[in-house]
Amino acid sequence: MLHAAPSDEELLREALDLAPGASVTRISREPLGDGSVVGFDVVEGAASVTYFLDTSGRTVPRETGLLVGEPDAPDMRVWLHPADPHLPALAPVAFAHAAESMLARLGLTAAGAPETVVYRAGRRAVFRVPTDDGLVWVKVVPPARIGRIVRAHAAFDRAGVPVPTVRGWSDEGMVVLDSAAGTPATEATWTAAALVDQVDRLRGAIARIPLKGRARTDLRRRAAWYADRFEHEAPGYARRVRELRRRIETGWRDGRERSVHGDLHFGQLFLGDSGELSAVIDVDTAGTGAASDDTAAFVSHALSSALLTPVPHDERVWLLAGEAFARWDADADAGDGLRGRTVSHLLGHALGAVQRGDEARTGALLDAADAVLEGRVTRPRA
């Protein structure tokens, strides 16, 4: 007799020996290593806490919860938020008193508690903290990545590419940054062609920075992981996703190596009063890769954002996606592998929509993926 593998919820219930009546609600899933990190809100009696189930197989500096297997070959681990073993600096930064002490060592006086902006379990967290010298941003990452992040900021600064100033950092995996100069591109006034011009100038400047190590893109592997999750979580879409992945693989090209941002999109850009680029953020992923690693990230994010933006405000985002795709798809360098990489990103966005139960958005993102592979960016009809 065949038996189905236990679900993530079943694994968590068994590991924690939860009572049958305990409420377990999945709130997130992050691909990591050879598996994933899945977050759950657990309510048992009057207590409500957040646990994470980690099947990445990655080792950590120190275990902070329950381990199944051996420390150098973990099968599974479970931890209670914020004791993320991949991010040892997370718990200290997450609490106001500890954050105040840390900022004081940098000559800053906190004017409020840290506010969580982003938390991707096992990967990174970002906090916004008001201080007597303005807003600062505290980023928490795995310790092995902190040196690379600090070096990337220094390399961009030396090359004249504007990035936020690093106030201080710790080997434990924490860096404190000033706010970026200018207005976020998401809030600024621009035309699609002018913004793509700015992005092209930025891409050219980044290409001249002598970065070491590969950018953290690995889109080919991520596409395979996304397709596998569709098989398990949304079998109704699995056949369509398998076909998209087949088409990605058929047309995959690695492209000529150059320095890239690694996660470039208009949410990472800040503009000055005249529309000029005043800062680029999140250079953590910068390294070597194909030119289309950046162009695909930009197009896919614009498409995903356009589908989320209410009518009629979505029009300028659709124009941006269309302008960027048309320009770069016709470029021998920027367009080499653009379509497949863009679809890889879109599969990730679609999987997120599946996990939120948003069927309309899932279908729209897969429609956008089909259109990209056919060489089109098409705004859905109202």
From TrEMBL:
Residue span(s) of domain Aminoglycoside phosphotransferase: 125-301
Domain of life, source organism: Bacteria
Pfam families registered for this protein in UniProt: APH (PF01636)
Designated name of the protein: Phosphotransferase
